[in-house]
Amino acid sequence: MIRIWLTLAMLAAIDAPAHAADPAPLKKPTEQERLPAPMIRAAIERGTDAYNAGEPELAADILTDAAERASDPALGAIASLNAGRAMLSAGDSVSAAERFRAADRGATDATVRADARFNLAHALLAQAPEVSMPGMMGVTEGGTTIDDRIEALTAAERAFRSCLDVAPGDTDAAQNTERIRREIHDLRKMQEMLEQQQKQTPQNTDQLNQLAQEQHEQSELNEGEEPQSPQEAEDAQQDLSERTQEAIEGLRQQAAQARENGQDALAEKLEDAAQQAEAARAAQQEAEEALEEGRTPDAAERQAEAAERLEEAAASAREAAESVQQPEDQSGESGDPSQQPEGEGDESQEPPEQDPGDEIAEQLIDREERQRDAREQRRSRIAQPVYVERDW
User: Fold this and answer.
1) From CA 253, how far away is CA 91, in angstroms rounded?
2) N or C end of the chain: smaller count of CB under 10 Å?
């Protein structure tokens, strides 16, 4: 869709006010003076020529000067609109946004206002930061958070939506509004998923540690000189077995969710914890059978084994929790060999053991990159403002 350069016909339609007498001859303007319409039109043409010659920065300077010195606000709005697009083309989305806002304020024509708002939305969209890996996990230092991107996208979505206030039939603006809303929705779902993971994974460790402790206590009671009554022992073991089974099901559900989100390393940690808890559950079942048959010493042995397997499961769950909470090494030491002091990069030294969280971070980074590619594909379908010249 053509959004930017306005025709001479539109410029000509913005007539200077009628005067009873002939206008006074033009004098050379100073920096403080406003320029009349003919000079502003000429400046817009010069700005167009500069842009077409591949000099968007020069075009932006010419057009910004014309916008600020125009005696007619409507002509100033046109100059601001084109200046903003030149800035956007040159990569200065912040200054471009200010020019588009100025164009919207000064415009008297609905088309100019709609184009100003449409281009403002693109300038704001260009400012929307990509979410870094620490930012995905809520680490504010060294990373842009999901909230930062959502805030920027929301501003762009509002600008696209505002186009419809002055141009209700603008299908490009309507479609862009909906596409950005979908991305915001997806980002919020991702945010909820990550927050849920950060809460669940520490809970897994606590739950498994508690089960291990209680299982040890049952083993010690059944090994003592005064064991529990058979019914008490069976009831206590059945309760532990049921809670262990619930923990296994929770771990497997979380592992499936992590794999669905592309977090394969996290899924493997959770699967390891589930398998170790499964081994504990098998030992618990043997302990239940021994208790039913009155073989209390055998039951105590199996209970001690189950407690050890539960401790192993808790350790794996703890590694999973640490990988979610610390996506990147926060020690502050640089991993760039070029930053190492001379003599410390000896190739004969064995490489350090990889941090358990590093692979998780790599998996999440890969997932973010895939989502970023998908965003770029969606963005390529967003109607872009095109810098063109119309029938000067």
Assistant:
1) 45
2) N
In terms of domains, do 220 and 163 share one? no
**Residue from 322, 357, 285, 306 nearest 205 by CA:** 322
* DSSP letter, residue 392: -
Q: What are phi and psi of 109, to 5 degrees?
A: -100, 135
What is the mean pLDDT of each successive set of 10 residues along the chain, which is 392 residues long?
Answer: 42 34 40 79 92 93 93 92 94 95 94 95 92 50 74 94 93 93 89 74 84 92 79 92 93 86 83 93 93 91 94 89 57 37 39 44 51 51 37 26
In a domain, 153, yes or no: yes
Q: What is the DSSP letter of 339?
A: G
Amino acid at 295: R
Residue count (the chain) = 392
Q: How far is CA 245 from the centre of its chain?
A: 36
d(C-alpha 259, C-alpha 251), whole Å: 12
The residue among 147, 80, 67 whose CA lies nearest residue 120 is 80
- What whole-number distance in Å separates Cα of residue 7 and Cα of residue 296? 95
Reduce the DSSP state of residue 35 to 3 states and report it: strand
User: Is 273 within 8 Å of 251 (Cβ atoms)?
Assistant: yes
Alpha-carbon distance of 319 to 127, in angstroms, equals: 37
Number of domains the chain is built from: 2
CATH number of the domain enclosing 75: 1.25.40.10
The structure's pTM equals: 0.57
Q: In whole angstroms, what is the distance from residue 45 CA to residue 68 CA?
A: 16
